[in-house]
Specification:
The chain has helices spanning about 5-10, 15-25, and strands at about 30-35, 40-45, 60-65, 80-85, 90-99. It is α+β, with helices and mostly antiparallel strands and about 100 residues long. The strands form two sheets. The protein has a three-stranded antiparallel beta sheet, with no helix packed on it. The structure holds zinc ion. The site of zinc ion has 7 residues, from strand 3.
């Protein structure tokens, strides 16, 4: 690649290069996959700042908002569960934390 070719690419980057730059600088949030731990329904969503820790890292249970709470395993002994709804279009996050 010559210097002038590089300059042209830099001034008018193709879509893949623009996307990878935006992901790197953190200007545009990445997409995450949400998956229901009861029925396996998946949805791709943009992460929100207010989501509790564990949702993006898959450290919290997720369930569709129409499943019963008894369809997921109980929190481990000594942990208490907080339900946070409104994740994506239909998910509730179950966040377990020391009681
Ligand atoms: Zn489900």
């Amino acid at each position: 690649m010559t210097e002038s070719e590089f300059a042209a690419l830099d001034a008018d980057p193709p879509a893949w290069l623009r996307q990878s730059r935006e992901n790197r600088t953190g200007k545009r949030p990445v997409w995450v996959e949400l998956r229901c731990d009861v029925c396996g329904f998946t949805e791709t969503a943009r992460p929100k700042k207010w989501w509790p820790a564990g949702v993006i890292e898959h450290g919290a249970y997720l369930s569709c908002d129409f499943h019963g709470a008894d369809e997921l395993p109980d929190p481990p002994p000594g942990m208490s569960r907080t339900e946070v709804d409104g994740i994506g279009s239909r998910f509730i996050a179950m966040v377990d934390a020391p009681a």
